[in-house]
Amino acid sequence: MSDELDVEVEQRLTFVLARLPGWFDEDELARLRAQIRELVEASRKLGTFPLTNADEPDFLVQMGTRQ
Prior knowledge:
This protein is mostly helical. It has helices at residues 2-19, 26-46. The model has no long low-confidence stretch (mean pLDDT 87).
């Protein structure tokens, strides 16, 4: 899975670099690559939860008093 993950990260990084050419130095590229990797890993983890067409987002209702 690491190879697939690496390929996806590089594809996404290539897309960003095509949209923003010349914006990043080597240190920024390394941080950007790491951030993209974290997002791809989180996306894959979220994708493992089974959903049906009837599933809705969880709504958060905050109750409190006015001050």
